Amino acid sequence: MLWSALTLQLGYNATLVTIGATLLGIAAGVTGTFLYLRKRALVSDAISHATLPGVGLAFILMVLLGGDGRSLPGLLLGAAISSWIGLLCVNWLTRHTRLSEDAAIGAVLSVFFGFGIVLLTVIQSLGSGRAAGLEGFLLGATAGMLFNEALVIAVGGALTLVAVVILRRPMTLLAFDPEYAAARGINVARMDLAIMALALAVTVIGLKIVGLILIVAMLIIPPVSARFWTDRTDHMVLVSGLCGGVASWIGAAVSASAPALPTGPIIVLTSFALFVLSLLLAPRRGVLAAVIRHRRFQRRVHLRQGLLALAQGQPIYEAYTMRLLRRSGLAHADGVPTDIGKARAAKALRDETRWQLVRRDQAFESAAALYDGLRDIETVLTPDQIQEIDRRMGGPREVTP
Amino acid sequence: MSGEEFVPLSLTPLLIGILAAVACALPGNFLLLRRQALIGDAISHVVLPGIVVAFLLTGIVAAVPMMLGAAGAAVVAVLMIEAIRRLGNIEPGAAMGLTFTTLFAAGVLLLEQSDTSGVHLDVEHALYGNLESLIWLEASGWASVLDPVALSGLPPELGRVAVATLGVMAFLWIAWRPLVVSTFDEGFAQSLGMHTTGLGIAVVIVSALAAVAAFDAVGSIIVIAMFICPPAAARLMTNRLEVQIGWSVVFAVLSAVLGYVFAGYGPLWLGYDHAVSAAGMIATVSGVILALAAGFAPHRHRSGAPAL
Amino acid sequence: MNVELVANKGEVPAAPLPAHSPLAIRGMTVSYGQKPVVFSVDMTVVEGSMTAIIGPNGAGKSTLLKAALGIVTPLAGQAQVFGQPLKAARHRIAYVPQRASVDWDFPTRVIDVVLMGLSRELGLLGRIRGHHKEKALACLARVGMTDFADRQIGQLSGGQQQRVFLARALAQNADLYLLDEPFAGVDAATEKAIIEVLKGLKSEGKTVVSVHHDLTTVRSYFDRVFLINTRKMAEGSVTEAFTPETLNQTYGGRLATGQIDQLELAAG
């Protein structure tokens, strides 16, 4: 069952929904990357919650006009308009009052959502059973979806993806360096709005699949996962799109394969699993790699400081430093250096002295900038340069009393 | 409207609405000033998984385990946000969004998977509560306020949210000075030896407790709205923190009262016979108050440069 | 002893932690990520002195102060305050953070900020009484800000904000004053007012340590200097340690020779 769902053999509607969700997931992952890089990830939360009054008003309007009220394109249009208004409210509050963006986001999402709930209760009172489909927008509902609705989602997902692909270059430029982008003639404010519009499109089209509470996860989680794997914007966009696409595809397929497996939560949890893998295992930014690196680094610092202290005959105050020196066979338990310890200490001190000379000399400015107390001087200067420095340093001298 | 009708049907929901609004608005002031307004959003979303887990563990729908479950979920969420932020070097907004959507998704999935048929535990209820149902059937009029028999029939939510409100007030009373200093100038507070990290976590936990108690009565949206809207509107009214706190309480009470009244009677005035969601209306009123403050309040514009 | 071990000229072996130094730092290393910004630094502040911490941008000046105060956690190293661990002697320190480190839009008045300096005295629940207010006003008077007591802090200029921070430190009635760039971005009048206050503190026998940026004023403001560029480069009285040689060493090639000549001129 699951296999046939994953391979798109589970009926026409389920297949359409799966394809639509996957396309939408890719579009969301890519759009979300730009939101994330512009540090506006949670604006999407305001956008998604602000869809609800639009859905409600669209329904009421369609009923008043004598329609059924449940036409998906109509409801989505309403959602888009009201979330656009919500977005404008966030921008207005941030720009024209002293409130910060997070306060504006929270205010807009809760007030719009609250008003949306008021409208839902109004609709319930209009006539029994008519509002039944609307609760589906809260948490998403793909089961029993009509062919038309599935088609709207598939086409919408595809169109959003196309828009993202067309706009990816200016958006990348903007995310990487807004000032440079402006200098290149990109209208930053308009481009920011375009990113928001894409986020809004993803939100609105995804409403029926994942619901308005969880749709933000499709915009937020994949870019966060992608960030661990690469430092390059263009790669991040690809990885994020991939994460989003995979999560949505698995989510939609798994959900179609059995009852009581709602699409939205499965997509979100799959996405989260990808995040956890990235957080732990990514080669450079992952937690495991970082822990190992930090331990190593701390060891190096303590060892180096210990050696310098030994070389200068200073007492060592820290137990950890002492332990390290002892364990590496550089010092005896009483703090007296071993023979190897003496040699290593002398080398450390000589390097340190060389560094002092390097940092004093304008000719070595670029090398001097690399000084961090730990770096071996051989990795920065050529043997000839070191010889030159040693010459200036002079040979070993007696201690002047 | 007579006491005979008002006391049993409207007094308790109104009181619960007011207390819930105040309990959330008070810590909301500090969340706002600490640029953590959206913590309220995150907390309220994870309350659902909390009560679902509590229900699955105990098998009963009872207030105490569910409140514990919700509070536990809030703490888990906060720890998770901090862990993701620090371990992954992820900006706080994204860490929050990631955390609360994941926990919420887990809650919904657990709910769907478990057999909760016949149990009143549904998502919609969690989202917008049911303030209108918290009536006091034992009451027969204003005299009941002094009648021990009638008082024993008060909805338990009232007691819980009252305790939560008192708890929040006590916390702010005791921790006021370090809280203000560390919110304004963390480095200075640390130089005085204050545990600023601990204080930050305490604010979040107190907010979580307020959210859980309020949530129990009014659902999660009004919780977010109360965390943010009254303090935000209050900030625009004054440049003094003590006064801001005062205004936030006024706005919270005003939102609760007007929201409840509009929800219950507004439709009647317009000629409809069905009431609308009180929680939703309270959130809406708080939004209108914020909009008015943003347009006309005396201190709505920024004066100092924001921190770097 | 191996002769080479002490070949490093100019490095004096550090004394053990001196019991009565207002601030003694040993082996302090602080890193942000994988790059140490302060590496194995020793510092001994002399009681009753005015010490400038000097070094190029990013040399670890502020970080050293913050590590000494426990605001950032060092990777290695220790600090003692008046011969005691930091915890036991916190009440003897007043810290003036960088002005840019706080949100000046915070809803509070000038007088309230100064009263924060009395936090310790007031305790958790102590009420602010008349004599607390008088004390705070007296501190504001010392920095020439009495008239601004009831202003919202966001309405102040940069120099005025800095003076309020100094007044808050004065209210703490400490023995050691640690200031992080108190003269950054302030007007000439404020600079003069601040230095008067600091010199007043010194004449009362208090110790002042300040991160300082402007090399031209070092000689007239301070009596001791601490030069740092990740490592300690020099420490001592202005005449000993603030020389073209130590400056060259600290700033590498970044100071033009002309600039140093100018400093010599300023020194008279």
Automatic annotation (TrEMBL), chain A:
Question: Where does the UniProt annotation locate this protein?
Answer: Cell membrane
| Major subcellular site | membrane
Biological processes, Gene Ontology terms: cellular response to iron ion; response to zinc ion; transmembrane transport
Extract the signal peptide range. Answer: none
SUPFAM superfamilies cross-referenced by the UniProt entry: ABC transporter involved in vitamin B12 uptake, BtuC
- Give the way it sits in the membrane: Multi-pass membrane protein
- Report which superkingdom the organism of origin falls in: Bacteria
Task: State the PANTHER family in the record.
Answer: ABC-TRANSPORTER METAL-BINDING PROTEIN (PTHR30477), METAL TRANSPORT SYSTEM MEMBRANE PROTEIN CT_069-RELATED (PTHR30477:SF3)
Please give the name of this protein. Manganese transport system membrane protein MntB
Species of provenance = Shimia marina
Q: Which gene encodes it?
A: mntB_2
Automatic annotation (TrEMBL), chain B:
The record's keywords, sorted A to Z, are: Cell membrane, Membrane, Transmembrane, Transmembrane helix, Transport
User: Record's superkingdom?
Assistant: Bacteria
**May I have one GO cellular component term?**
ATP-binding cassette (ABC) transporter complex
Organism equals Shimia marina
Q: Which family does it belong to?
A: Belongs to the ABC-3 integral membrane protein family.
- From the Swiss-Prot or TrEMBL record, state where the protein is found: Cell membrane
Q: What is this protein called?
A: Manganese transport system membrane protein MntB
Membrane topology term reads: Multi-pass membrane protein
Q: Which Pfam families does the annotation name?
A: ABC-3
Q: Where are the transmembrane segments?
A: 6-26, 38-57, 93-111, 161-179, 199-229, 241-263, 275-297
Q: Which BP terms from GO are recorded?
A: response to zinc ion; transmembrane transport
UniProtKB/TrEMBL annotation, chain C:
Is Transport one of the keywords? Answer: yes
Arranged from A to Z, the UniProt key words for this protein are: ATP-binding, Hydrolase, Ion transport, Nucleotide-binding, Transport, Zinc, Zinc transport
A single GO molecular-function term is: ATP binding
- Name its GO BP terms in alphabetical order: zinc ion transport
The EC number(s) given in the record are 3.6.3.-
ABC transporter domain ranges (all copies): 23-255
Q: Which InterPro entries match?
A: AAA+_ATPase (IPR003593), ABC_transporter-like_ATP-bd (IPR003439), ABC_transporter-like_CS (IPR017871), Metal_Ion_Import_ABC (IPR050153), P-loop_NTPase (IPR027417)
PANTHER family reported for this sequence: IRON TRANSPORT SYSTEM ATP-BINDING PROTEIN HI_0361-RELATED (PTHR42734:SF5), METAL TRANSPORT SYSTEM ATP-BINDING PROTEIN TM_0124-RELATED (PTHR42734)
Stated family: Belongs to the ABC transporter superfamily.
Return the protein name: Putative zinc transport system ATP-binding protein AdcC
Q: Could you tell me which species this protein originates from?
A: Shimia marina
